[in-house]
Amino acid sequence: MVSRSYSNLLELASGDSPTFGKVGKRLPRVMTVAGIISELDDENSNSASSDAPSSVTQERIIIVGNQLPIRAHRRSDGDGGWNFSWDEDSLLLQLKDGLGEDVEVIYIGCLREEIDPSEQDDVAQTLLETFKCVPTFIPPDLFSKFYHGFCKQQLWPLFHYMLPLSPYLGGRFDRSLWQAYVSVNKIFADKVMEVISPDDDYVWVHDYHLMVLPTFLRKRFNRVKLGFFLHSPFPSSEIYRTLPVRDELLRALLNSDLIGFHTFDYARHFLSCCSRMLGLTYQSKRGYIGLEYYGRTVSIKILPVGIHMGQLRSIMNLPETEAKVAALRDRFRGQLVLLGVDDMDIFKGISLKLLAMEQLLIQHPDWRGKVVLVQIANPARGRGKDVQEVQSETYSTAKRINETFGRPGYKPVVLIDSPLQFYERIAYYVISECCLVTAVRDGMNLIPYEYIISRQGNEKLDETLQLDSSAPKKSMLVVSEFIGCSPSLSGAIRVNPWNIDAVAEAMDAALMVPEPEKQLRHEKHYRYVSTHDVGYWAQSFLQDLQRACSNHLRRRCWGIGFGLGFRVIALDYSFRKLSVEHIVSAYKRTKNRAILLDYDGTMMPQASINKTPNPELICILNSLCRDPKNVVFVVSGRDKKTLTEWFSSCERLGIAAEHGYFLRLNHDEEWETCVSVADFDWKQIAEPVMKLYTETTDGSTIETKESALVWHYQYADPDFGSCQAKELLDHLESVLANEPVSVKSGQHIVEVKPQGVTKGVIAERLLATMQQKGMLPDFILCIGDDRSDEDMFEVITGAMTGPSLSPVAEVFACTVGQKPSKAKYYLEDTTEIVRMLQGLATASDQAAMNTSLVSQ
């Protein structure tokens, strides 16, 4: 077995001996041969301590994508080896420009070409040494199921809003394809583990091919610095929820620290899915959107990718480009060129564009002979019957238009379906009056960006086109409102590509726009595109990833769950799970105990339909109340009548109703008010407003209490209910501004109550009463689950330094679930709360039994 001192993958790959006494530059992993991990680590290890120590000081980012930014060509000489070169068109390579010279970049992904197993070791060595690329070799049959199967037949159509309503539309869900997808993601994870230094490196995963990769990486390294960017659309929840593995993919993505989207729509759909399917809420803090997920904040990034300005400008300077522009100028002299550049797939809307061109020539015959639509149709990336149908329809439509409106020397549609060099495409951009992008759904689409920069031109191209270089440039765009770049192109004419008449009119309008306006639109677009290039996008994403990971070391982390349900719990070091053994031990050795218990969400699950306490809970409370060392209070937001009925058998139980407005020390005492309120006239103002929102929000209700009004929306649509709650809160605050009340929002509620009524008042009252009786509490337990309970936590934690507690008091402020709280402890759910209370009740029963035996 190879020694742990082999910490440099480059040394291993090259076969060199390790240099002892010198810090290895990379790989805190154990290796046997190049590309193989030694099985020293438990695959199911969830411990953060599994993170390997790092000795790396240079910042490094590992970029993981389905394909490496590498071109491979078989050598023509006798040995049949491979030649490799950078793929200058690859986004993964271009984004490197925004990361800075001091950032080392490692790429992990597949090669486009299939490599024979006998050559894989040599190829991997060459790519690692020369390009710092780690190839992922996937068996062909597995890759076919992964890429052409699950990715292209199921994820890609669904993310572009195509439901598998029949076997011919996207394909029905196939469990074996899903298993292949997971298997390939696991192989990618193994490759990342070979090269990562988890304490220092950042990992940036790209696109829908690798959506479950974050789970495998987070499982191995709990504190991995992990970002994910989705380059496709993310569909609305109504579409996404049809996916059988919807929860698995969402939870996998949430194992990232930062998730990036091109547009707010895509991010909004993702957040809506998390809300509706996982019950998660998000909030915006200082401009950053964050999801709270088991104590971790998963940040959301919204920024469209840009183009590589340097590459585009260098190709514009080529003599081949200049020559091609001159040839196209002569070919289309006297004609206005409309340009479309699209892949030949079902979502790019090529046939709709051609139909719009046909409609333009019908509705505006003056354009016949003057306007030409040049449609560049790139080969489809997928395969199947749908691609063949698109090709057939495109060819037949183009043929019909040319036969109807063409004449000698004039073809209204020029269809180019052969691959073009980049410089040729740029030449078409340069001579085109308007660019048309009518995709029915597209994640981003950079064609308009390339067109704008090309139309800016340079001196050589201006000379070729006989243009004044000092004159303002011009361009026009007609873009679909369903593509990712549309929101950033505010000067474009946006269209619904399904409305052929509207697209035809937009084409006519684009041609008729006055020259000064074309120049203003171009200037606006050029300013945006030139400053928001791919380098800016990459730099911005990395900065946000660094910010999102900045508090990793300030949190305790451990993993829970199995398989794709794995997630990491991250908590502040001062916020920890309440140990039943610890609190029972403290309970047994103390003599004056105060116990404050919330009810709904604490002792009774929020989701429970029947809220009446069960016999087990009543028995526990009675055991606690019988102990002469205890003062036990249930502090609830419910009304006093309900609480009286529910706890009628608990004679010694103190009850605080309506968040502390009413108080009863025990069953034999009368109810009293803790806060004096002059009148409740404000209800006549608040109730009509609440009724209005109840009528317009299906599933919402009003709860009328003696001291308060509560609007509940737990059973309303999550998004609409939350939106209405915010509106109602603002509305009530406005109309009640001069009333002595407070308006607060809570867990699925908006409540209006008199000022000064809080659960904290009950905590203060209890401590003061015990102090007056000479019973300084040496044990306090306070448990709650929502914002109203935070007032109690604040009072009892503040009392630790005051005279109302014993100097050696044991204080346990405990919230339900991991979330920001003034409490120092948490328990997961109501089941754990009841189990802990049962432990205290059992201790009291045993103490009573022992006392009884002694007295006999």
Question: What's the layout of helices and strands?
Answer:
Elements: H1 9-14, E1 60-67, E2 70-74, E3 82-86, H2 91-94, E4 104-110, H3 120-131, E5 133-135, H4 140-159, H5 175-195, E6 202-206, H6 213-220, E7 225-229, H7 237-240, H8 246-253, E8 258-261, H9 264-278, E9 282-285, E10 288-293, E11 296-302, H10 309-316, H11 319-331, E12 336-343, H12 350-363, E13 371-378, H13 385-405, E14 413-416, H14 422-431, E15 434-437, H15 447-456, H16 459-464, E16 477-480, E17 493-495, H17 500-512, H18 515-531, H19 534-548, E18 555-560, E19 567-572, E20 576-577, H20 580-588, E21 593-597, H21 615-626, E22 630-635, H22 640-646, E23 654-657, E24 662-664, E25 672-673, H23 683-696, E26 701-704, E27 709-712, H24 718-735, E28 741-746, E29 749-754, H25 759-772, E30 779-784, H26 787-798, E31 810-816, E32 825-827, H27 830-855
Parallel strand pairs: 1-4, 1-6, 4-5, 6-7, 7-8, 8-11, 12-13, 12-15, 13-14, 15-16, 16-17, 20-32, 21-22, 21-30, 22-23, 30-31, 31-32
Antiparallel strand pairs: 2-3, 9-10, 10-11, 18-19, 23-24, 24-25, 26-27, 27-29, 28-29
Helix pairs in contact: 4-5, 5-6, 11-14, 12-13, 12-17, 14-15, 15-18, 20-27, 21-27, 23-24, 25-26
Enzyme class: transferase
GO molecular function, one term: alpha,alpha-trehalose-phosphate synthase (UDP-forming) activity
Keywords: Glycosyltransferase, Phosphoprotein, Transferase
